[in-house]
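Fold this sequence, please.
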Amino acid sequence: MYHQHMDETHAVSALAALAHLQRLRVFRALVVAGIEGLTPSVLADQLGVARNALSFHLKELAHASLVSVEQQGRNLIYRADFARMSGLLGYLTEHCCQGGVCDVCPPCGCAR
């Protein structure tokens, strides 16, 4: 899987954006939606969030490059940036178990 390069500054930006309950919920909903993405109205209905608040949270996630937005006709489609997400996870687990193979932390992908 392709991992987008992540440095400390980008990691802090991404983690700060996700360090809010509503933004984390929005991001997870977009991850579940996959490459199809979701419109803000569908997201708002799914999560029970006011649309103006959702707009603010989507902008914060986009500013951290965790989501992308595409205009499709009259609709905006938001998608999780899976390369960025993988890059963040890779950054967090880059030196797991001192870079060796381990069976302690499966999220890093180095499990046997």
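DSSP finds five helices and two strands in the chain. The mean pLDDT is 87.
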